[in-house]
């Protein structure tokens, strides 16, 4: 009997979430996972199941999502790479394809994720930025918002910022860094960047929702601290809308890469 | 008989051209002019005809289009401004409304227009930039492209860069400035900026189409000069696609503004 070689393939993916019901496959409508799996199955001739670093919700974007899948196909990586990008729709790109150690797992081995949230803070909406930012017309006190950031750094219980009605094993998460800066090219765009070991669903959007309330002067920095300490979702403001959120990076500890392309770096 | 006061109102408009057949009203489908006229007619209670600084073609964007219209309505500008922005779709904004001298004409009195053309130059397409740039995967020689720019500055005959099959009185146009730079925030984005007294249809896109051929090494700077000097549309390469083009500014010589709002500055 011929030996069947099973390969573990890792994809680096960028997508515009506007027209999808999020990453995770579901019967109600198009998802990023569903579209890529369908194309991969066509290319490889067998059913493919993708495992991503984590789901992104409906309308959320990604410049650097990572997913892996197993295949018995011996098609060269370059062919898979080219076929994927010629068959995928315009709002999904795969910018790197590589073979990794059999043990690599896109979700379990991710040790750091970086999200960006864009707030367009200007009295008039900008039609060209509407799909990739939250339009907040009221003036925001950026310094007050920045004063909240040290409170969320480190290992904290983010129970107040989880998605209402969801069950999780623990609401404790570790945040490595969080910054809030005006964009270099457009001072009306405020960019919130957060790096952490992992995030709960809606956590970044719930944090931004509360930070913007501080920026508007409706909450003080002390109120923000009290919300965090209350460990109760019901005391926090509603989440920021999805279109401002972009998964910017997923990082892994040393992984044996068996074959590789020149790395492409995709930027916003 | 009561005296009827006719007012001349000037609008500053930003729009995402993705979903429109261009500025100018036409029966085949939605246009920016058509949508704004319909909303204005509803607000003012009479048929409104907008006159813009110039048309933009299907898929082309604007951050600073200027248009004017006459009205017999005495509704305050602030009411018109607020009603417009609450009734317009998300991809059109009016960021300033003001009453101007009766003689002001948005097209005839424009003395300077600035267009930006964005080229995303990277081996892999970026889904988040696809609607506002031309994806060119091949490497571009930026220095060679820049060497062409002095050739188009000044009063020149741009017959080679007009839209094929269109009739114009003269193909001579005056270009004040043209630059080509990498974006500060994303070095893969090349931004072409051109300022001129006026432009023919497709002229900017035809210039960019030829510049990119120089960047790819398929044309030399001398070839570009020969194309310009040939004054013949048939010798020039095809136009760059519409989604990279943005009308960035329209400027007027002194105009008597009768009432004004605090100026908003909309940036890309």
From TrEMBL, chains A, B:
Keywords: Isomerase, tRNA processing. The keyword Mitochondrion does not apply. GO terms for biological process: tRNA pseudouridine synthesis. It comes from the Bacteria. SUPFAM superfamilies: Pseudouridine synthase. It holds the Pfam family PseudoU_synth_1. Formation of pseudouridine at positions 38, 39 and 40 in the anticodon stem and loop of transfer RNAs. Homodimer. HAMAP family: TruA (MF_00171). Belongs to the tRNA pseudouridine synthase TruA family. This is tRNA pseudouridine synthase A. The gene is truA.
């Amino acid at each position: 009997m011929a030996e069947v070689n099973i390969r573990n393939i890792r994809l680096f993916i960028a997508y515009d979430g506007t027209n999808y019901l999020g990453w995770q496959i579901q019967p109600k409508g198009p998802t990023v996972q569903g579209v890529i799996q369908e194309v991969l199955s066509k290319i490889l001739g067998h059913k493919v199941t993708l495992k991503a670093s984590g789901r992104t919700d409906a309308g959320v974007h990604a410049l650097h999502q990572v997913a892996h899948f197993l295949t018995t196909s011996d098609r060269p990586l370059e062919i898979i790479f080219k076929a994927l990008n010629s068959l995928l729709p315009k709002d999904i790109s795969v910018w790197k394809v590589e073979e990794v150690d059999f043990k690599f797992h896109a979700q379990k081995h991710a040790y750091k994720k970086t999200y960006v949230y864009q707030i367009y803070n200007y009295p008039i909406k900008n039609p060209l930025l509407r799909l990739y930012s939250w339009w907040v017309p009221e003036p925001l006190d950026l310094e007050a918002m920045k004063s909240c950031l040290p409170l969320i750094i480190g290992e904290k219980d983010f129970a107040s910022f989880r998605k209402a009605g969801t069950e999780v094993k623990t609401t404790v998460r570790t945040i490595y860094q969080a910054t809030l800066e005006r964009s270099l090219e457009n001072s009306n765009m405020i960019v919130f960047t957060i790096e952490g070991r992992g995030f709960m669903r809606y956590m970044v959007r719930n944090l931004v929702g509360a930070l913007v309330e501080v920026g508007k002067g409706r909450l003080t920095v002390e109120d923000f601290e009290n919300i965090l300490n209350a460990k109760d979702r019901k005391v926090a403001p509603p989440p920021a809308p999805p279109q401002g959120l972009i998964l910017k990076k997923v990082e892994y500890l040393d992984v044996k890469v068996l074959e590789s392309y020149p790395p492409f770096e995709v930027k916003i």
